[in-house]
């Protein structure tokens, strides 16, 4: 029986994982994948990746950051200053934080609640609902100002499962439901993110290519070696089930307790207490299921160099189970993750980065069992190089 804290894992995944544990096998791709080392250092490649991201829906906020009409947050996304604003009708909109007069920022605060956004330079103001130009001081001293042309520039912004996404390409033919697809929807829904709270929210800027940070969080083999005295003891390495959901994908891995249960044939429980998972939300986010909370990672490449990124890590907990005890446990989980990430993962990724810069030749190899990493790099190659 699952406890009410637990999130069920698909029965076919559970049985496949148990089969792997009994036979000492894991899901395997047909072939290894090779990615040029230069892709981790090359400025032109980095520009192409950023241009690609600007064509895709990107995760920019969680609904709990803007629960009420008028709530807003300002974010810089790939160099674009955005205001994400909760509308009176409950929807969300994203505006470029740029005045249509002569380019000032119309909102200076990181977050707040406003009915209008006003530029401090010459006082032009804009409606939070729809971004229309509201008031122009000394308007008679301007020529006629075309209202429709003078709204805040808007980007498609949509919320699904409590995740707020912006599409900088304004592609009207693609909804967020299309982008996720039913399989990703089905994986996210049980976590009830729309009823969750952010318990941990941290950002780190590091001299590491963004893809190495993604790789490090997706990788299934390294915990046994790099975290041998920590998380490496709790999870089975090189045992996993990978599901491809279009460009996205999900790795399911076993905690060591599940191996014992699989081996002795005791009652099998496939919930999130025994099975860890990492859902990669292409291109730069992932959702890592822990027993009670869920971790979101979003990794942003720096605009001016291939060798730097900023990772934002957030822990979300369903509001109905969040009590003092769980909050304490979640903070403890963060301490463990922080220690592993800052002392073990990121120093290793930094060395890889330095090595790649010193020797940007040849390629890195993603083995047949490294399906989740390989899937991300295959998708990037498809989108950037038209690879098969
Ligand atoms: S630049 Fe915003 S009011 Fe002039
Ligand atoms: Fe790690």
TrEMBL record:
<dbReference type="InterPro" id="IPR036922">
    <property type="entry name" value="Rieske_2Fe-2S_sf"/>
</dbReference>
<keyword id="KW-0001">2Fe-2S</keyword>
<dbReference type="InterPro" id="IPR017941">
    <property type="entry name" value="Rieske_2Fe-2S"/>
</dbReference>
<dbReference type="Pfam" id="PF00355">
    <property type="entry name" value="Rieske"/>
</dbReference>
<dbReference type="GO" id="GO:0051213">
    <property type="term" value="F:dioxygenase activity"/>
</dbReference>
<dbReference type="InterPro" id="IPR001663">
    <property type="entry name" value="Rng_hydr_dOase-A"/>
</dbReference>
<dbReference type="InterPro" id="IPR015881">
    <property type="entry name" value="ARHD_Rieske_2Fe_2S"/>
</dbReference>
<dbReference type="InterPro" id="IPR015879">
    <property type="entry name" value="Ring_hydroxy_dOase_asu_C_dom"/>
</dbReference>
<keyword id="KW-0520">NAD</keyword>
<keyword id="KW-0560">Oxidoreductase</keyword>
<keyword id="KW-0479">Metal-binding</keyword>
<dbReference type="GO" id="GO:0051537">
    <property type="term" value="F:2 iron, 2 sulfur cluster binding"/>
</dbReference>
<keyword id="KW-0223">Dioxygenase</keyword>
<protein>
    <submittedName>
        <fullName>Aromatic ring-hydroxylating dioxygenase subunit alpha</fullName>
    </submittedName>
</protein>
<dbReference type="Pfam" id="PF00848">
    <property type="entry name" value="Ring_hydroxyl_A"/>
</dbReference>
<dbReference type="GO" id="GO:0005506">
    <property type="term" value="F:iron ion binding"/>
</dbReference>
<keyword id="KW-0408">Iron</keyword>
<keyword id="KW-0411">Iron-sulfur</keyword>
<feature type="domain" description="Rieske">
    <location>
        <begin position="57"/>
        <end position="166"/>
    </location>
</feature>
């Amino acid at each position: 029986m699952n406890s009410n804290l637990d999130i069920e894992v698909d029965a076919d995944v559970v049985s496949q994982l148990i089969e792997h544990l009994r036979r000492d096998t894991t899901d395997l791709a047909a072939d290894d994948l090779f990615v040029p080392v230069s892709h981790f250092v090359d400025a032109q490649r980095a520009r192409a990746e950023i241009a690609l991201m600007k064509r895709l829906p990107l995760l920019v906020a969680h609904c709990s950051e803007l629960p009420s009409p008028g709530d807003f947050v300002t974010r810089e996304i790939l160099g674009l200053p955005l205001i994400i604003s909760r509308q009176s009708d409950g929807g969300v909109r994203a505006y470029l934080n740029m005045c249509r007069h002569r380019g000032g920022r119309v909102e200076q605060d990181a977050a707040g609640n406003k009915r209008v956004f006003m530029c401090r330079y010459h006082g032009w103001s804009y409606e939070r609902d729809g971004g229309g130009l509201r008031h122009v001081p000394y308007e008679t001293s301007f020529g006629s100002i075309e209202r429709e042309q003078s709204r805040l520039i808007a980007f498609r912004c949509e919320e699904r499962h409590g995740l707020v996404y912006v599409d900088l390409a304004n592609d009207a033919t693609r909804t967020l439901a299309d982008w996720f697809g039913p399989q990703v929807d089905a994986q996210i829904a049980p976590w009830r993110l729309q009823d969750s709270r952010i318990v941990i929210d941290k950002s780190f800027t590091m001299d590491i290519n963004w893809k190495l940070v993604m790789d490090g969080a997706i990788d299934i083999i390294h915990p046994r070696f790099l975290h041998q005295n920590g998380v490496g003891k709790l999870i089975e390495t090189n045992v996993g089930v990978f599901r491809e959901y279009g460009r996205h994908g999900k790795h399911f891995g076993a905690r060591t307790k599940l191996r014992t249960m699989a081996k002795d044939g005791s009652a099998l429980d496939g919930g999130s207490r025994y099975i860890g998972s990492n859902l990669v939300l292409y291109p730069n986010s992932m959702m890592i299921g822990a027993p009670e909370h869920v971790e979101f990672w979003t990794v942003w490449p720096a605009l001016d160099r291939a060798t730097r990124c900023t990772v934002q890590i957030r822990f979300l907990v369903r509001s109905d189970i969040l009590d003092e005890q769980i909050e304490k446990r979640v903070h403890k989980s963060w301490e463990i993750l922080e220690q592993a990430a800052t002392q073990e993962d990121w120093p290793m990724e930094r060395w890889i980065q330095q090595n790649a810069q010193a020797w940007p030749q040849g390629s890195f190899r993603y083995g047949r069992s490294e399906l989740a990493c390989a899937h991300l790099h295959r998708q990037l190659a498809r989108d950037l190089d038209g690879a098969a």
